[in-house]
Amino acid sequence: MASSDYSQEFEQLSLSHWFRPLPEALKTQILQRSAVRSFRKGEFLIREGAPPRGLYGLMHGRTRHVRSVSDGDEVLVHVGEPGIWFGEFPLLSGQPSVGSVIADAAVRALFLPVGEFQRIVEGEPRYYREFNRLLWERYALLFRFMAEAQGLAPEAWLRSRLIGVAEVQRGERPLLGPATITMSQSELANMIGMSRQTLNMLLARLQERGMVEVGYRTIRLLS
Question: At the fourth CATH level, which superfamily is domain 4-137?
Fold first, then answer.
């Protein structure tokens, strides 16, 4: 059972777009059947190609979500901050993980083991749909990014991608005002497939228009 010592961090998870609307009985089961796990910087929470282990909810720290490509290079998919849930693909598909999740700082995460997940959905099959919703939402976000990458002008695409990054970092909660993305420009350039020079140019244009504010390892979305 998850300890009450982390009540403030649990509250952060409870505000996520996925967890907030869950039936109260399911929320209770997730918390009761989960454990709090800690990771040092550089440790793997999920390793690419590993079998399903469970579902994670990030309570404290920062995670890097990466995918290997040719010649051993890695592409940064996104950066997670408290409130994000992950591990749903191997959990729901039964397939090996398609990417790795690495602690980018000291991390605490709520961890629902695959066996406990199975007990939940076997006890109430309708709950399977609630876990599936997390996967559907990620698919919808990916489909949106693919379409916008082809159809939007570079500045509009970058702004839309920044909004998406902020939403993912906040646990898929919609942005209702200014938001700060904690990420270096090198990380952002790797994530969205732009050269650092092109990214700097586009960020400068957005800053001139009062849409972003660029700082050290931060980008603040203003509008």
Answer: Jelly Rolls (2.60.120.10)
